[in-house]
Amino acid sequence: MANLYLTEQGSVLRKTGDRLIVEKDGEILLDVQCHKIDTVLIFGNVQFTTQSVHELFEHGIEMAILTRTGKLIGQITSPATKNIDLRISQFNRYGDDGFRLAFAKKIVAGKIKNSLQVMRWFSYNHPDRDFKSENSAISARLREVDDTAQIEQLFGIEGSAAKSYFEAFGNMLLCAMEFPGRRKHPSTDPVNALLSFGYTIIFNEISSLLDGLGFDPYLSYFHSIVYGRASLASDLMEEFRAPIADRFTLYLVNNRILGDADFYSNPKGGGVYLKREPLKRYFKEYEEMINREFVHPRTEENSTWRKCFRIQAETLAACIREGKEYLPFLLST
Fold first, then answer.
1. Measured CA distances, 267 to 104, 180, 270 (Å)
2. Which long-range contacts (CB under 8 A, 24 or more apart) does 118-121 make?
3. CA separation for the pair 140, 143 (Å, rounded)
4. Contact 15, 55 (CB under 8 A)
5. Do residue 44 and residue 109 come from a single domain?
6. Is 70 contained in some domain?
7. 80 pLDDT band (50/70/90 cuts)?
8. pLDDT above 60 for 184
9. Among residues of the chain, what percentage have pLDDT more than 70?
10. CATH number, residue 58
11. What pLDDT, on a 0 to 100 scale, did the predictor assign at position 293?
12. Which residues line the annotated binding site for Mn(2+)?
């Protein structure tokens, strides 16, 4: 199944039978069966009827409401999928400092290993690009993870590794687009805008999945608990940043699918964002990428990135309930 992205400003989401219809000025822009949809994401000034929300609830479909530029405002979800037993176990584990530290080490190590693997893959296809110094620095940070005694120390290790990684990332751009290093809140250039937007989309997907499986998405083990932020989704998305969002950004810019002309600067709040038509192109490419099948490196079964999100969430559930070791998703070597 796929996510439904509604970006046409002024349009209205309605329902007829078990189908969702998007209309604007009396014209039907989209007509889709509910059973083909996982989540509906509404960007900006898109209206929806009460009847359409009822239909989403009946099919267990979540709705995420975002600003036009992709900032999550809130989610509408059915209460039918809540799992109180899992939540009790989740809260109990929060009081176990050893559990939290062990889990945090796994996701930080997973993130760093996947960053290194993305660099290796790129270097294999582009031997003219040199990543030796960055590779050495990141590998050194990885070796420090096992000996870490406090979660706060992991933040320093992860941050240092990320700094070296994004220095290498700039060397992976095969186009003339500028990348001054990682910049966010707001993004200062198109490449950073694509990175941030990719992270936002993955975060929203994982947050909705966690909520649907019965977790409390706001109770995390690595990231700090912040009012209004689904911090557990922040935990789980770390291992997927480089394999999905970073590689997808490189794919879009290195293949000239998106370029500087596809972005605009916000004169009010600052930042750089995708224009309307390029945004639709982005979502088309994203859905193709996120649903493309590949062999899962651990299960050795056909999978997609969306299935991988669920596998990791279920792995975490088993870890919380049964005390099993958490195994992060790792790119194949």
1. 39, 20, 6
2. 118/242, 118/243, 118/246, 118/247, 118/331, 119/165, 119/168, 119/172, 120/333, 121/331
3. 5
4. yes
5. no
6. yes
7. low
8. yes
9. 98
10. 3.100.10.20
11. 93
12. 158, 223, 238
